User: Which sequence fits this backbone?
């Protein structure tokens, strides 16, 4: 099959799961045309992301003149189709917090995307996230472009389902992907029961080749790693508060924060206020090889998020044979089993997070190793990238 992937900004360091999915489809023999509205706004440190950027067509780089020519050609070729797509854009725009003007821009983008899809011979389009990429895919189909599907990750989509016209996007799609059963339930709230059959679960996947037999858990003081954008929902400030509680009994406990973002200044200030300079390392964004290295140096991944879908870093930590301490939200409990493959705590409870870190630090080594082995077995059984990409390909083929 020849599939067009429609994305907003691509690649991004935090979207490695999209790259993995695309490459798994290509490894299975399918052609994938990458189409993004714009490049990512974060510097690329992974060579694989650099390669993806080189392979991606960027709509807004075409320039206003090229977009205008594409628009005129589409209107001339099928005025009826264009008017129907225009009505759809206006209807969705009136419901949306971003407004009608943004949706008219999406329509112009969709015109050019349809042209790129025709040039590539794409027979199906797949978008990631239920935001503007899915809107462009929907409008592209309305303009006689290929049929579309899209993957919803959460949590942003679940914060504004009406504003995003999620119900309309699901109803017009060939199928819609949720990455967890929890995600499927949230989509079912906004898509009428007549459309529930369109909502499928396809997990994000890890590349087994990146995770050979794991190294033994390290000796010494408890070491944790947290990975993600520095934004409110990821809970890094809560992690620091919890660490401050842990160092009272384990003075050499250490937390490595991987990532960057708008809250970096607040995080640095909290580290200073809590006098955790010797207990915390900030790495910035790093490539996948460094992430694996940091996971192997840690006892556990710390994921204190307030809102999530199902983070890829949880899957990667488990595949690396490491335990996970995470909040009991969204799709996380579908993978992380309390007391079996990790520890789960209520979101927003720093004391509970400290207690979980203390529990893990005090676990006998053989118990930790047994739990880590279970975690690895579970994630590789449920989240293999090649298997999940095959599920997606099968849905597209059907």
Assistant:
């Amino acid at each position: 099959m020849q599939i067009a992937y429609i994305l907003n900004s691509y690649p991004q360091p935090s979207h490695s799961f999209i790259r993995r999915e695309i490459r798994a489809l290509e490894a299975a023999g399918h052609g994938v045309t990458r189409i993004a509205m714009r490049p990512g706004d974060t510097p690329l440190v992974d060579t694989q992301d650099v390669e993806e950027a080189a392979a991606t067509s960027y709509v807004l780089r075409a320039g206003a003149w090229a977009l205008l020519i594409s628009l005129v050609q589409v209107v001339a070729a099928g005025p009826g189709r264009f008017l129907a797509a225009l009505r759809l854009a206006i209807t969705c725009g009136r419901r949306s917090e971003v407004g009608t003007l943004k949706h008219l821009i999406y329509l112009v983008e969709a015109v050019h995307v349809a042209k790129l899809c025709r040039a590539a011979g794409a027979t199906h389009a797949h978008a990631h996230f239920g935001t503007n990429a899915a809107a462009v895919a929907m409008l592209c189909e309305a303009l006689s472009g290929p049929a579309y599907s899209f993957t919803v990750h959460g949590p942003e989509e679940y914060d504004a389902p009406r504003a995003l016209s999620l119900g309309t996007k699901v109803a017009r799609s060939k199928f819609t992907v949720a990455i967890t059963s929890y995600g499927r339930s949230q989509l079912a709230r906004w898509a009428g029961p007549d459309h529930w059959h369109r909502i499928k679960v396809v997990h994000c996947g890890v590349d087994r080749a990146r995770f050979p037999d794991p190294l033994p858990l390290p000796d010494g003081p408890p070491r944790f790693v947290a990975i993600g954008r520095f934004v409110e929902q990821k809970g890094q400030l809560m992690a620091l508060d919890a660490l401050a509680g842990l160092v009272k009994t384990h003075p050499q406990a250490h937390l490595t924060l991987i990532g960057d973002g708008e809250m970096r200044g607040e995080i640095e200030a909290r580290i200073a206020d809590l006098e955790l300079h010797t207990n915390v390392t900030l790495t910035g964004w790093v490539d996948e090889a460094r992430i694996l290295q940091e996971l192997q140096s840690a006892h556990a991944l710390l994921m204190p998020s307030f809102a999530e879908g199902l983070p890829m870093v949880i899957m990667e930590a488990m595949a690396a044979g490491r335990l996970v301490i995470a909040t009991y939200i969204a799709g996380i409990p579908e993978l992380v089993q309390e007391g079996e493959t990790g520890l789960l705590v209520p979101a927003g409870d720093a004391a509970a997070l400290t207690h979980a870190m203390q529990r893990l630090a005090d676990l006998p080594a053989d118990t930790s190793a047994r739990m880590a082995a279970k975690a690895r077995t579970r994630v590789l059984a449920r989240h293999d990238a090649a298997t999940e990409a095959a599920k997606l390909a099968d849905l597209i083929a059907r």
In short: Residues 99-120 form the longest helix (22 residues). DSSP finds 17 helices and 13 strands in the chain.
